[in-house]
Amino acid sequence: MELKLDKIDISQVEKICNVIDKNKSFLITAHQNLDGDAISSELAMFLLLKKLNKEVRIINWDKVPSIYRFLPSIKEVKIYNKETFRNNFDVVIVLDCGSLERIVDISNYVKDLMLINIDHHLTNSHFGKINWVNPEFSATGEMIYFIIRKLNNIDKKIATCIYTAILTDTGRFTYRVSKFTMDIVKDLLTYKISPVEIGRKIYLEKPFKSIKLLSEALNNLKFNPINRVCWMKITKQLYKKTKTDETYTEGFSEFLSEIKEAEVIFLIKEKENGTKVSLRSKGKFDVEKLARKFGGGGHKEASGCFFKNLDAESTEKIILKEIKENGRNYKC
Predict the structure, then answer these.
(1) What pLDDT does residue 1 have?
(2) What is the C-alpha radius of gyration for the chain, rounded to an integer number of angstroms?
(3) What is the dotted CATH code of the domain comprising 7-203?
(4) Which of 5, 150, 187, 188 could form a disulfide with 9 if both were Cys (CB 3.0 to 4.6 A apart)?
């Protein structure tokens, strides 16, 4: 099978492989509020570097959602701790992250080191010494695939991680499928991975608490048939009532996307310092432009933004007002 990158992508892959070859110690991190693409890409890169006898650690701002705890070497993923963190790494690899701000306080310790920025988001701020940024890829995991393939080091564990990254960031192959996606998946299958088992772990083994939280949140599910917008709020009170946290909301936005009548979907999640908004579209509405309006970003079909020091109700009013007054500006 021949998968050909363009000259710019080939050059970036070669630069990254050269840095890997010449250095010994690596830190891998990704954006806060980890998703399947971020954590799976981290683990694939971790497994590669370990095979190359490098010193490597994965440190993130927050914990891994429970549905991804089946992934190989998941116990190697650590949560940032100011008291024990050391920035004595030769190289920092930041994955699936549009800006340094999205790795939160970790950025204060690594911004002056050799930073490799690998991402597929249109709104990436190119904060690295090396920036391989290309929104044509369906997932950062696809980009990691080409790095590892260049170094001839794909195995079953790595293939499992890359497949998980692609599966989750394409919404089970329902949006943002690139020209490479199916050929990459075809190659990954040759390493004897189990798409059935991976799919079951992610989509058919949600914790009971997660479903309980969803059932409570569905009580405030709303739909506007005029502009075909559907939305739901998850408050801090709901987390407390169900003894859950944000990691239990993985997949909620995709669940709302299954509503036939909805063209635009947004999920509001309260945090201690504000509200996070996850936006989804079925293709006729550019939610990346909407997210960018409020300082966020992502992709046309899936994006997000954050409202500092606002509760869910206030955020709801702002989003709905913007869609009502300027919705035509976001039509595709």
Answers:
(1) 53
(2) 19
(3) 3.90.1640.10
(4) 5
pTM above 0.90, yes or no: yes
Other beta carbons within 10 angstroms of residue 154's beta carbon come to 20
Token readout for 74 is 């998941």
Q: What is the pLDDT at residue 23? A: 98
Side-by-side strand order, sheet with 297-298: 222-224, 229-234, 264-271, 274-281, 302-308, 297-298
pLDDT of residue 86: 84
Token pair, residue 32, equals 């806060």
Domain residue limits, the chain: 7-203, 208-330
Q: Which two tokens stand for residue 245?
A: 């946290």
Token digits of residue 157: 């564990």
Distance in angstroms (rounded) separating the CA atoms of residues 32 and 213: 21
Find out whether 175 and 302 touch, Cβ atoms under 8 Å: yes
Query: Within the chain, which residues score under 70 in pLDDT?
Result: 1-2
Architecture field, domain 208-330: Roll (3.10)
Is-same-fold flag (7-203; 208-330)?
Answer: no
Residue linked to tokens 């996606």: 181
In the prediction, which pLDDT does 198 show? 98
